[in-house]
Amino acid sequence: MYTSREIAAFEAGIKLGALYHQFVGTPVSEETVDSLERAIEQSVSLQPYVESVSVDIDRSMLRGNIFGYSELSGNMIRAEIEIVYEGARVRAVLEYDPEKDYPMMHLK
Question: Taking the model in full, what pTM does it have?
Answer without folding.
Answer: 0.92
